[in-house]
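agent> step 3/5: call structure_predict on target 'Branched-chain amino acid ABC transporter substrate-binding protein' (Kiloniella litopenaei).
agent> reason: downstream docking stage needs a structural representation; sequence fetched in step 2, passing through unchanged.
tool.input:
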Amino acid sequence: MADPILEVISLTKCFGAIAASDGLTFSVKRGTIHGLIGPNGAGKSTAIAQLSGELQSDAGRVRFDGQDVTRWSVDKRARSGLQRSYQITSLLPEFTAEDNVAMAIQSQQGHSFRFWENARRDHSLRTPSRKILERVGLSDFADSPVMDLAHGQQRQLELAMVLATAPSMLLLDEPMAGMGQSESLRMMELLRPLKGDVTMLLVEHDMDVVFALADMITVLVKGQVLVTGTPDEIKGHPEVRRAYLGD
Ligand code: ADP
Ligand code: MG
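tool.output (status=ok):
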């Protein structure tokens, strides 16, 4: 494959007798959205956690951006640009959307939590914070406290928080989970244009979303890769239809 940003090589993780991931091998091309799909329990979240560094792998390797990151911590991977998406629980509800983004930028610059209050007074963070809010469609809500934002807007802000860390690759485990149809359509429209800057590995159970967004798709079944292909190849794959789409 031309210029893979991520190479997953025989990655394995066992929980007792269960191999949640069992020799996963696939590559993600730079500047693409790569879908990761499969039935419940197929090992998608386990794979994401192994790639982010939250879970140590039992075997196999992960290469990111030309380096072997297999034994790297979550923080070291994040600093090198491989980043998992934030959770709403990491937002500070009484602060404005802009304050939250400013704090995320500042933490990226190596400041710890207790300095975050200062981010509000650091005017050099204003322009970059506003730019990021614009990218996630929240320009009009820069001065709104997070607790006043709708659920979907808070999810957009989560995306802003992770963009503030300037990732080159994002690991997204069901970013539309719990969203209504209009919110998830909005999130799709936000993710699509990001891919030039930010490669994405997207776990998503809604097949319409995956087929609409992904350039390539890897199908997992029982911890193993069934197939990696284009959306059209995946749609036409008889075993995928049988194992996953319910034919
Ligand atoms: P998916 O995200 O595709 O639904 P998971 O990665 O969450 O699948 O789970 C894959 C398999 O690993 C399942 O059988 C699940 O029960 C098991 N599993 C996941 N996490 C743990 C854990 N922390 N301890 C034990 N078993 C786990
Ligand atoms: Mg999961």
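agent> step 4/5: record observation. The chain has two domains: 1-81+167-247, 88-166.
agent> proceeding.
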